[in-house]
Fold:
Amino acid sequence: MILLNPGPVTLSDRVRNALSGPDLCHREEEFSLLQQSIRDKLLRVYNLSNENWAPVLLTGSGTAAVEAMLISCIPEEGKALVIENGVYGERISEMLKSYAIHYDRHTNEWGANIDIDSLSVMLSKKKYSHVVLVHHETTTGRLNELSEISELCTSYGTKLLVDAVSSFGAEAIPFENGTIAACAATANKCLHGVPGTSFVLLNRPLFKNTVAPRRSVYLDLFKYLKAQDDKGTPFTQSVQSFYALEEALREFFDQGGRTSRYKVYKRRMTKVSSILNSLRIEPFLPSSVNSVVLRSFLLPHEKTYEEVHQSLKKQGFIIYAGQNQYRDKLFRISLMGNISTKDLSSLEFALGKTFS
Structure:
């Protein structure tokens, strides 16, 4: 079964075999070495220095990493401006509300480009400590423009918190401009690991000067950072998923790193989009604003999502539904993971059979 949903992904044999590594206590030196090796490799994905950036590893989903980032980086007197143009931006607002963290919402239509002019107006009227943005909004596949928003944050003296759960490892992220305070991501998407391990990359100088209240015991990034810099861990980690992430990162670099992975995804998505175009299936967004990781397509009037999903599943492929108001209008295809040229040929046949 080939997974075309936006994580978890179809694993390579290398990563799947790594799950059978030896039983290991998380308080032993061997685990410390494993953890540090992963942290070093995460920095290499975007060529970041340990002096300026700190990867913090968590056992939990990408959502756990996002929540940990929010509650650890926004100080008690701070206020966030959340940019929303899909489910995951709205989920961030929900998290902030649940912790009683002060925030405002910059709302845009799902799938729409972010209105930079109105965002600038909001930033000019109030002092925000942080802007929070989902980089790749998998609700629709839109890739939100980080560089432009980062520059806007710089001009207003505001820091940026980035949900890069579905973009880290493939899309470009402007870490070098100094505005990004933290970036949350996960093992089981563009890095091709397994669910269970997520992480937050912290801007060390900015985080060092943050005085955030301890809003959580388990998701307190201050606690994790101190322990991991001291070669420890505050809580039991998912050892087997760490093995898998370590091997996935080795494979990632063996295959050429981030720019190579981006090109592979783009090549796959161009091919699949061309196949669907020949079947008169239209994309929801133009390719110019779409991530290479996932794309949404309009369901033809004569087909329901359930019919399309079941047809493809019987032929060995799992796709994803649209969300909420798009449930009956869209289907989504992601092309992460271990997908071969043969798999793409089989997908072409399966799509033809489904939509003919």
Observations:
- The first strand starts at residue 2 and ends at 3.
- Residues 129 and 158 are 5 Å apart (CA to CA).
